[in-house]
Amino acid sequence: MNDKYDALKSNVSMLGHLLGNTIKGAHGDELLAKVEEIRKLSKSASAGNKDDHAKLIDVLQSLPNDQLLPVARAFSQFLNLTNIAEQYHSISRNCEELICSPDALDDLFLRLKGNDVSTADAEKAVEDLKIELVLTAHPTEIARRTTIHKLVQINKCLSQLELNDLSSTERGKAELRLEQLIAQAWHSDVIRQQRPTPLDEAKWGYAVIENSLWQAVPEFLRQFDQKLQGHLGKSLPVDAAPIQISSWMGGDRDGNPFVTAEVTHEVLLLSRWKAADLYLGDIQELVSELSMTRCNDVVRAMAGDEHEPYRAILKSLRKTLTNTLDYLDAKIKGQHIDEKDILTHVDQLWTPLHACYQSLHECGMSIIADGLLLDTLRRIRCFGVNLIKLDIRQESTRHADALSEITRCLGMGDYSQWSEQDKQAFLVRELSSKRPLMPRDWEPSDEVQEVLDTCRIVAQQPREALGAYVISMARTASDVLAVHLLLKEAGCPFRMDVCPLFETLEDLNNAELVISQLLNIDWYRGFIQNFQMVMIGYSDSAKDAGVMAAGWAQYKAMESLVTLCEKSGVDLVLFHGRGGSIGRGGAPAHAALLSQPPRSLKGGLRVTEQGEMIRFKLGLPDVATNSLNLYASAILEANLLPPPEPKQEWRDLMETLSDVSCDAYRDVVRGSKDFVPYFRSTTPELELGKLPLGSRPAKRNPNGGVESLRAIPWIFAWSQNRLLLPAWLGAGQAIQYSIDNGHLKQLEEMCREWPFFSTRLGMLEMVFTKTSPSISQYYDEKLVDAELWPLGEQLRARLAQDIKAVLMVENSDHLMEQNPWGAEAIRLRNIYVEPLNMLQAELLSRTRTCDEESIELDEALMVTIAGIAAGMRNTG
């Protein structure tokens, strides 16, 4: 193929044609002709034809109400199909070297040899490798599970059609199946009719594991093992567990009143049920496969006189798993059933299956042992008997409120009014005490009772069912000690990892001081056994100070915490609260990890996977395998070929960039009297509340303004009108300020030699490429009072100047010069996103001026929101 994008374009064209057939069958020639007219005008307008741009606006503005929804659905559906084609293209057999990078791990091992990294150091890094992905409980995932299932099936059809030796019958069959799937998606509700519950979110997470990660984890480890043998001459141990999966779904109660102790308990039971169900599937297959009769003495002792010893052991396990499912079914329904011969601990699976594995090897059947049986053993090490480790997350003031009620009831005063020093003294005294603290005959408020009930649920679980207890908006050492005390009072028999989450600019800057205070407390040092987890907040820090200042504060916080914990002899794990969008710390995984401070990945990686990015990075087995490959190579590279320590002059300039960008960002967001009314009118922020995105309310405080908005709807709203303000505001202005003050050469050096800075610029380039000043202006003209237009004009002028500043530092003529594949993918989607943008502005105008609520208009508006989100990809 001459054009390296031909395979992708061919699939996009085919899917579009089949969607057209579906639209024609459902709505007739007239609507299809209208959709096609809009598509062609958009394509011409994207190429710079101003007349067709004006015609496109006229056509969309003149659509009758009954055509708004099907037209919106057509373009929204097409973007879903384009995403699937693009996602498939990244793993297809025809993915050419110009598009797909060479295998990241192979590439790394070759570079390790070139850099004289010793085999011993490489082996140690592999031994210490730990990747923990945390699926989060506030998905910006618009697509319903039923839609996602259809998209997965479409992917399978594309894979079939790529085979060169298909007969015409087989090809026709695959194409018919594709058209059926597209028709099924068209005739199903695109948008959920009801907001998902936390249980729905948890089930969505289990579906990702069942449909993708259950296959991807052992496949990645198989490939990793082969690479280790090829490059280091060493195998990955059977019991190695470099991959762990955790979740916030059903455990994250920060600002979500729907996540209760009861919900958390049910999610933990459902998680165990799903694990037993998936293992039962594996065991059924192994019963079919392991019909061998020769075995070693260990297996013979376990199987007795059975002629087929492996099957005898497996059938016993099958019975245990069936009992477990019956028991958990009853528990979930609130019924009582005896806890007899059920799965409660990982060794019940591991010990007999590992014995079978060793026996097969000893009896000359290694090729059989290293098949499905090895995959199952790998899964046991990754998923355990609980499938995922559930994190608990709660806001710091909720713990302080609980302690305040206790101290007031005991006549000790109001804990919340005490100084930090007095709080710490009280907490350490009570943590060291053997007597209970809780007063008798005390009736806590409902809010406090909920906190105490959550701690009791934690105390009743086996340790391996749980991840960390994350404290959002953590500010002080007492915030951490308070959770330890509440868990102690609940009778928690194990040490829970209590993880402070530092979110705002000020809190990030104080992170080292807080952890230092904790490590200076003798009780605390003894209790944590030299292990500390700290979560770095990306979303709220960027919302507070802008992306440039937040990025530098995150870097410095990580750096100072690494140094502090090294000096103190404490193992540190940094937990990254990244989102998919740039405004929430998003960046390509490999680049993002290599841009962190040296030594910050020594304890492994713990990172949130959020919203629609879960589907894009982990939703298909092959894609998930690739993602794990990228994570593993980045962590190993960061630890074996660490990035350079920044020069002092780079640090000094970053301080300036941070200060200038923060001031510029806050000057607009906090300082402009017109900003809030402009934001509310030019974006669909107010309308987002109608979209059943996730179980959490859009605001922490329902009566608050922009400052109370969660980071997700804040960024989501700006991505809809294509200004993407939070993802760039302040950054380019700071760069321009430094250029004007004679620092261009230094900025160029930082761009070339410092991954932290070059990654920041790369992220800005991607954001700039996704913006559309003309679309933003169109929203203003349709929706914003004329007296507020100057603010929009200023912001778009600022955007244009910022793009020039970044290109000057990078010595580039146009955006994403180094990433033509990414630029082409954005360009391809824009043809379908821009009509949706214009349609959304039209719908917002009609719904805001309409006296009566229109269900039809509201639904069409929701579809445009979903479609634009699909087109923009990393929206929240």
Q: What do these coordinates show?
A:
There is one protein chain. The chain is mostly helical and 876 residues long. An 8-stranded parallel barrel has the order 1-2-3-4-5-6-7-8, surrounded by 8 helices. It contains 36 helices and 8 strands. Strand 7, helix 23 (589-594) and strand 8 (605-609) form a beta-alpha-beta unit. Helices cover 64% and strands 6% of the residues. The chain is globular and about 85 Å long. Helix 4 (65-89) crosses helix 7 and helix 4 (65-89) runs parallel beside helix 36 (855-872).
- Mean pLDDT across residues: 90
Strand content: 5-15%
SSE-based structural type: mainly alpha
Shape: globular
Which range best describes the helical content: under 10%, 10-25%, 25-40%, 40-55%, 55-70% or over 70%? 55-70%
Which sequence of strands runs across the widest sheet?
1-2-3-4-5-6-7-8
Largest sheet, if any? 8 strands, parallel, barrel
Supply the number of helical segments: 36
Give a count of the beta strands, DSSP E runs of length 2 or more.
8
Uncertain spans: 96-100, 580-587
Radius of gyration (CA) equals 28 Å
How far apart the termini lie comes to 36 Å
Keywords:
mainly alpha; 8-stranded parallel barrel; 6% strand; PEP_COase_bac/pln-type; PEP_COase; EC 4.1.1.31; carbon dioxide fixation
List the helices and strands and how they pair.
Blueprint: H1 6-27, H2 29-46, H3 50-61, H4 65-89, H5 104-114, H6 119-128, E1 131-135, H7 145-161, H8 168-186, H9 198-232, E2 243-247, H10 261-289, H11 297-303, H12 309-332, H13 347-362, H14 366-383, E3 389-395, H15 396-409, H16 420-432, H17 446-459, E4 466-472, H18 477-489, E5 497-502, H19 505-519, H20 522-528, E6 531-537, H21 539-545, H22 547-568, E7 571-577, H23 589-594, E8 605-609, H24 612-618, H25 621-640, H26 648-669, H27 675-682, H28 685-688, H29 711-720, H30 731-740, H31 744-753, H32 755-770, H33 773-783, H34 789-810, H35 820-849, H36 855-872
Parallel strand pairs: 1-2, 1-8, 2-3, 3-4, 4-5, 5-6, 6-7, 7-8
Helix pairs in contact: 1-2, 1-4, 1-8, 2-3, 2-35, 3-35, 4-7, 4-35, 4-36, 5-25, 7-8, 9-10, 9-14, 9-25, 10-12, 10-14, 10-17, 11-12, 11-13, 12-13, 13-14, 15-17, 15-18, 16-18, 19-22, 21-22, 22-26, 26-30, 30-34, 31-32, 32-34, 33-34, 33-35, 35-36
Keywords: Carbon dioxide fixation, Lyase, Magnesium
GO molecular function, one term: phosphoenolpyruvate carboxylase activity
Protein name: Phosphoenolpyruvate carboxylase
